[in-house]
Amino acid sequence: MAKDIEVSPSGTAFDYELYEGDPDHLRTVVAAPTPAGPYIDPASIKLKHRIGRGYFGDVWSATHHQSATDYDENHEVAIKMLHPINEDQVKSFLSKFEELWVNLKSKQIQGVCCLHGISVISGKICIAMRSYEGSVGDKMARLKGGKLQLPDVLRYGIELAKVIQELHSMNVLVLNLKPTNFLLNEHDEVFLGDFGIPYLLLGVQPPDSDLVLRLGTPNYMAPEQWEPEVRGPITCETDAWGFGCSIIEMLTGVQPWFGKSVQDIYRSVVINHEKPQVLGGLPTAIENVLNGCFEYDLRNRPLMVDILEAFESSKNDVYSEGEWSDIGGTLSNKSKTRGFTTWYLSKDLLRVGDTIRSRKLFNSRKSQDSPVLEGSVVGLEKDTDRDGFVLVRVPNLPSPLRVNASTIERVTGGLTAGDWVCLVNENVKHSSMGILLSVQRDGNVTVGFLGLETLWAGRSSEVEKVDPFFVGQFVQLKSNVETPRFEWPQKRGGGWATGRISQILSNGCLVVQFPGRMVFGDEPNMFLADPDEVIQVSFDTCPGMIVKYQHLEDFHWSIRPLSIAFSIFTAVKLGVSVGKCINAKLKKDRKNHETSNDSRAPDGNVGRKSAWLRPNIMFKEGAVTATAR
Ligand SMILES: Nc1ncnc2c1ncn2[C@@H]1O[C@H](COP(=O)(O)OP(=O)(O)OP(=O)(O)O)[C@@H](O)[C@H]1O
């Protein structure tokens, strides 16, 4: 196999430097004040045979030859050879890699696979790393049942969570967490084999249009990872999903969504909001945190610090009689209340001096049932308690109120996480409206915008609040939108249909349902919408009765047929009862008429009455006859 691949000494337009130092002892080199560049001369690499084939490329066993005046060495290495990318994008990949390389060296991060450097062989990017014994995936494949014991999973999980947390602190996302990327050395120590290759490939187009470069491996991908521009942004919580999938696979020996096609996985995870099954009988903290990893809304997922805490707290759990007992005590319930998980709440703990307001429910107009509208925190019952109580001073009240911390939220510079905002400088390619995902006390903010794969980070002065959208609101395309960003259905008679927001993604992308449309079979009735392109519709904003009635039809497709049926029914019923009335009157009058002709009243009164009624009767008879004819 190796012979098939030619090693071209000058295959690219880049300058290569020889890596100096012993790559097998990288951590000694790491401390060097001026780290060497990562580029390796492709001529110094000799590929031997392929040892793995992955989603992003192949892994080769190779030797890396290094020599200088005082040494001449060959090192056994593993080479991750990525699928080809466009030539003009190679340079940007290499510079991103160099940035990561320098960062990894300066931070001396333990637990990431030892990198030797990077090269380009026959136009393909090759990442040289230390050759390990194999991966956790390989170890599982060798075991009966293909699964690991919980203590091993906890041990690996803790080591991996630590290193992922460090990568996150450097703003690097891994996006490809899975057992085949967890490498093992001869001492059964685990190292992260993929340090963010999908992240480095973000925005890169493959030259072959048939090859879709996905941002991860489908079985392990979070909902927002499939189309980060549309359903994003991808954040640290995206790795929580992949981590959760890997742990489940290690414990069960079965890959999440095993046997499903990529399209089926997409449908299950992204459209149907299905989650990988968390097996029962695990320590409570592990079960809670794994369930949290599979929350659809990334804001509700735990961070690596939470995962690490849960894993470390479960290390000493004892298994007896089919159940795990939590030696460290039962952890607080992490279940979701009113749309928020405790993981969400724990990302922003209150401090004394914080300005607060009643917490708004997730994507809803309503606030929590809290007596506080606005105030400031004057005391914490327990600094570290995420579900604890705080003392809040409210204007015009003599003494502070004791309120549950989960019912209030921090306001900084007039902004709160979850607010809808737009950029003050509107000159942007992405949607102008987005959702504030975090606001720090120092004024740093992050926002999710439709059209941006990753978080927008800036200062609070660069954003301003806009009117929010809520789940349940009806929306219509703005009249000036001729070609909407996403497909939008039309009414039967022409014109854009009106839909109802059924979900709001964390970048502000609206998921709109059209209950006023009758759909057949598999026809979709759920569409995405750019918040920039729609306006809210309500009875208050509908001018006139006709438009109000038309809006009523948007509530359900059955309104129109029902109202038609009702009108016909009413018309028929009215016609019948009018007819009955007329007939009854005619009969009565005819009877009266006959009575007046047959009998002469002694006082002549009846006869007089009949006389003035006659023309009337004749007229009605005529009318009835005409109708009958
Ligand atoms: N540095 C290494 N040392 C030894 N073996 C390795 C190394 N890197 C990868 N491998 C082997 O190659 C196998 C496949 O790795 P690879 O990363 O190509 O596959 P993958 O993780 O399924 O795909 P991808 O990372 O492209 O999504 C691993 O299970 C492991 O056996």
Provide an overview of this structure.
- The protein is built from 15 helices and 25 strands.
- By secondary structure, it is an alpha+beta fold.
- It has a 5-stranded antiparallel sheet with strand order 1-2-3-5-4, with helices on one face. The protein has a 5-stranded antiparallel sheet with strand order 14-13-12-11-15, with no helix packed on it. Strands 19-18-17-16-20 form a 5-stranded antiparallel sheet, with no helix packed on it.
- It starts with 25 loop residues before the first helix and ends with a helix.
- Adenosine-5'-triphosphate is lined by residues 51-52, 54-57, 59, 78, 113, 129, 131-132, 134-135, 137-138, 176, 180-181, 183, 193-194, 217.
Spell out the blueprint of helices and strands.
Layout: H1 26-30, E1 45-53, E2 57-67, E3 72-82, H2 87-107, E4 115-121, E5 124-130, E6 134-135, H3 136-142, H4 150-169, E7 182-184, E8 190-192, H5 197-200, H6 223-226, H7 228-231, H8 236-252, H9 262-271, H10 284-293, H11 304-314, E9 318-320, E10 323-325, H12 342-346, E11 355-358, E12 374-380, E13 389-393, E14 401-404, E15 408-411, E16 420-423, E17 433-439, E18 444-449, E19 456-459, E20 463-465, E21 474-477, E22 499-504, E23 510-513, E24 526-529, E25 534-537, H13 544-552, H14 559-598, H15 605-628
Antiparallel strand pairs: 1-2, 2-3, 3-5, 4-5, 6-7, 7-8, 9-10, 11-12, 11-15, 12-13, 13-14, 16-17, 16-20, 17-18, 18-19, 21-22, 21-25, 22-23, 23-24
Helix pairs in contact: 4-8, 4-11, 8-10, 10-11, 14-15
The protein binds adenosine-5'-triphosphate.
